């Protein structure tokens, strides 16, 4: 029996590599001789660098950069065999880098992510994948572009201060001094959300509260982003604010498109193409996937549904394992997922569930496979 394991990471608990390893452990308790192919997968968020480096045979590179609140941190990105680079903006300006009591989305900057892009350019990389997800920022990528040599000036021709709080002061955008290597590079921003830049489903309204923003700050950040979008339209003749994904990572999707000519792509589709997923699943009998939480939102660009869509055409059943399962999952079965299994087997504190994520995932994989095989034997 040929089984493909292609799971996203379980955020805060298991990397994509670890999740696959524990799923394999559970499978081999049932079918020790099964042919198992593990494919590291991510959707543009946490784990994208690991999935691409491990899956495609790249190498890691570390660089000291500016953290979200201007502290110095060590960040890691990947260089792939074709000499393209893969960067997670969360490595430089991610929410986990800031203690909950210190979160300040008004000041947080994406400058460090720009420093990673700059380092990749210095290494000769001319194709750069940028995973958007998990940011502590809402600066619309202004910090990232400042690190690459761009200037955002107020009416007195002074550079604005860091963070989304200052975007309303921008009256002039000067991109003449951007690193010239940027013009030679292809930037591909990968994300798993469809949010526009502004409005009730925009970057500030949906994501800023989890980054510490008060309702009043959400309003300010949204208005500031709208102001920046207006200046961009007037001065650069670019109108990207309403494009799906513009609001990803605190508006970084918008900023990368507007200031660096990046292409925005759905993460899961890009990842599956890069790892030649459809070739890998040839003659497969079963695919097992998963992520930390599966709910109704998983239908919008998340790993399990993206995988199920590719498998449906080949009529390959897909079992999904999740750390937690929402109540609004009925629509996911229509997307091609055969069955969804929770990894947590009983009520317990979140911390315990995360600490035991590996063994729980292995047990869930075993349970799912046993039930699948039983139904196969009965011809269900």
Summed up:
The protein is of the alpha/beta class. It is built from 14 helices and 13 strands. The strands form three sheets. A six-stranded mixed sheet has the order 3-4-5-6-9-10, with helices on both faces.
Labels describing this entry:
380 residues; alpha/beta; Rossmann fold; Glycerate kinase, domain 2; 2 domains; 6-stranded mixed beta sheet; 5-stranded parallel beta sheet; 14 helices; 13 strands; 18% strand
Chain-wise SSE layout:
Elements: E1 2-5, H1 16-30, E2 35-38, H2 48-56, E3 59-66, E4 72-79, E5 85-88, H3 90-93, H4 111-122, E6 127-131, H5 142-147, E7 151-153, E8 172-174, E9 186-191, H6 203-207, H7 215-236, H8 248-260, E10 263-266, H9 267-274, H10 277-280, E11 286-294, H11 303-312, E12 318-325, H12 330-334, E13 339-342, H13 350-355, H14 357-377
Helix pairs in contact: 1-14
